[in-house]
Each structure stands twice: as C-alpha cells, then as structure tokens.
Amino acid sequence: MLSKKLLSKEYIAKLSIYSDKLYIRSAQEFVLFYAKLFKFTESDLTKLELVTEEAVLNAIENSFEDDELGSLDVKVGYKPGAFIISIEDQGIPSDEDQLDKKESAALGLLLMRNLADEFNIINLGRGGKKMELVKYLPETSIADMLAAEDKNRPQDEETTAATDVPTMRLIQPADASMLSRLAYRVYGYTYASVFYFPEKIRELIENGLLTSVVSINSDNEIVGNLSLFFEYKGARVADSGAAMVDPRYRGHSIFKESKKFLHTYAHSNNMYGIYSEAVTIHSFTQQGNISLGAKETGIMLAYASENLTFKKINNDKKSEQRQAVVLFYLKTNQEPHRKVYLNEKFYPLLQMIYKHVGIDREVIMVADNESPVVLQGLSVINTAIKPDLNIAVIMINQMGMDAIALVTRQLRELCLKKIETIYLEIPLGLPYAAVMAREMNKVGFMLSGIIPELRDGDILKMQYLNNVYVDPAKIVIASEITRELLTVIMQDYR
User: Fold this and answer.
1) With bands split at pLDDT 50, 70 and 90, how would you rate the model's confidence at 156?
2) Are residues 299 and 350 in the same domain?
3) What is the pTM of this model?
4) What is the pLDDT of residue 298?
5) Is 82 helix (H, G, I), strand (E, B) or coil?
6) How far is it, in rounded angstroms, from Cα 56 to Cα 53?
7) Segments of 387-445 assigned E as strands
8) What is the pLDDT of residue 109?
9) Same domain, 325 and 343
10) Are 99 and 24 in the same domain?
11) Residue 203 is part of which domain span?
12) CA 238, CA 211: separation in Å to the nearest integer?
C-alpha cells in the first residue's frame, strides 16, 4: 500500500530508458508493477500495458532521428481518483513531413482513445515534451449500487411531483454516493463519467478541487446540485457545472437558489468570479444565469455529445448534432486592473463583451499591420484530450517564438486522429496574443469568447470544428448579445 506522503509527490517512481524499441517491454513491466498496487482489474491492466507500448513507441519514432539514440523518462504518478503514466523526452517536435510519413503512429490518438480515460500532451519549451496518460482508479460505479434499488422502486416515482421544500448546504465527502444517484436520475448514463463514481467525487472534495451546494429534501436525499470545479486548490476563479435537479423537484427554483448560494460562497472566499457553460438544447439554464446577473462571454460550438439527454425535459431524445454551450461569467469580487490585447477582427465584438461583463480592463486593439515583438524563448503548451467528449483543449501557458508553429502542428495531429472539436486558449496579457489569434483564425480557428481571470489573467477561447456539422437554427439562444456573437462565429464557420 502506498503512503499518502508518497502519493502527494510529483511522481511515485521514474524509469529512464534509451529510445530503442528493446526497452518497450521494460517500460510496460515498470508501469504494471505500480498499477497492480492500485488494484486494477486484469482488463484495465491489459489496457495500461497496451497504452504504455503505444506511448513509448510514439516517442521513439517521432521524437528522434533514425540514427539518434536519445533517452526517455517513464514516470508513474497519482492524482485524485486517477493513475498517471508520463512519457517525457527532449527530442524534436513532430513536423508536417513526419506526420505525412507516420500518420498511423503519430500520437496514436485513435488507439489511446479506447485505452486511456484522458491524456495530455505538454510541450515544455526547453524542457522537451511530455505525454500524460490517465486511467481512472477501479471502484464501484453507481450502476452497481442502483441495480438492486431499481427493482424495488415504484414505476411512477420519477413522475410524481414533490411538495416539500428542500434545504441547501455545502457538500460533504460522505454525500458522494447520493450525488451519483442524482446524476443517474437526471441524466441516465449520458453525463460526464466522474459523477457516476462516488470515490472520485469524494477525493475531489477532500483535495479542494470540487465543492457543491446540494439541496436536501425531507427524506434526507440530495435532490439538487450545483458544483464549482477548481483547476488547482485555492484558485480565485472556478467553473460552475453539474447543475442537476431531481425530476420530482423541477419548478422549485433550485438552480436559481443554488447559483445565489455559490455566489455568496465565492464572495466570502475572496474569489474573483465563477464561469459556467449553459446548454443550448433549451433556454432554462441560460435564463437562470442571466436573472442572477451572470454575463454572456462566448459560445462553444459542438462541445457536448449529441447523446446528452435531460430526463423529463427533452423526453430523452438525442440531439441531431453536437451541442453548443453559452459561456457565462458571474463577478463575485473586484478583480485587478489588467491590459488585454485583441486582434483587429475580434476587437469590436469582444470590446462590447468586456463592457457588458463590467470588469476592470484596458482593451487594446492591435491592427493587422502591426507586428508586436514576441517574447524570446520557447512556448509551453498543454493539450488535454477528453475521449469521452471527443474534444481537445490546447492551452498556451507560455507564449514563445514557436507558438504559432507548435499549435498548427498540434491541430493537424488532432485532426488526423478525428478529434471532432478542438479549442484553443490564448492568454490575453501580451501584445503578441493579438497576432496569435489572427494567425490561428487563418488556419481555421473561429472565435469562441473570453474567460476572465482564468489563469492570472484573461483567456481568449477559440474553436476549430473537424468536419462537424452545425445548424445554428438548432441552437437555442436566450439573449441578443449571444445571438450577435453566434452570428459572427457562424460567418467564419460558413
């Protein structure tokens, strides 16, 4: 059994090997030794063995010249609810010629999608690059817990409207199982997988990465939830999501009251604000955000799977296309004054959004004929791939002289492996951000919107659709500013 002290480290163990296929088996045995300590099933161990082979082979074939003997670090680690395999090297990045020649091997995203629960590709500048493969820890899913209960539940229970008034409080680790039950009652099995695994929820709460306001009925059941997700413990901005209301309690204003509760919580804990994504398959969530003072800041097209359904709202029917969400920001405390730099094309609309949101910003337009100096050095870029949604997010953490080339290569690799929706996040605190946005728009990234104060500053979010059809008539919009934003985005889409 691994100690908590060891689990809290950056990694549990590290194996250094040469970039030769001879060492692939050694890497697999190294990973399996530690994976077995986490009590994975034989099926999961086989997946970990295969995904390690694919990741190490990818690094050997794509990071070094044929006659070059480089080295790789294979690390195993832990984060709440997950076992992490990292493959790190200081070899060359893939270029377009390599991608053409080795399309079947480049990243192996198609294979990895079926083997890992998540994976991240991180360009570390002079530190090389790293691939992280994430496998959720084995545990009892809510499906096992509900199997016996479903046999005894009255057929009409879900359709009987409740009359009692629930009370609200912050979630506790012991509530995890009840929250999983609520996810099933609201979404069936079409929602994000973490909410079907009580142990994962419990660990996120205990590690300060998740908090929720839950609504408790007279039978002491959780019948409503709204969560805050933090990128790291102590973050000043959080993502509000997992809005769930038991079908029996719809019409009790639970979402609106939950939002008020979290607003008070965020203000009391000196958070700058809360951002959220409101679905567009109906307008209820958007209207709830607007009524509480949240401001629209963008639209993410093709974000959610067409399989996502809401029991008793859209009669369990699947959408005919991937679903869009509207970005909202709710200010909870005074943020610092900052300068943000926008390219000429996006400036008029985003300046209007900044004024609409009402945060302390000096918005500067960089004309197309201007060429701001980029910071010297190499970029640090993290690409997070979410197989369950078939989306990827490319995050520019440090913008260097190679940023445009790196993102363009990464985009091509993701497209080759049929990732459907690719988002790009650009920090807006440097003049070169405007050049980055302009050049990425030329290669097919459309505007998405802004997220204030996400990572010690504002983020410009852009989006690329990889052969994904969008019919704007099927996107339900609740405000004129969002409609105007959608019109501008769809002009690029067409």
Assistant:
1) very low
2) no
3) 0.81
4) 95
5) strand
6) 5
7) 391-398, 421-427
8) 56
9) no
10) yes
11) 148-331
12) 10
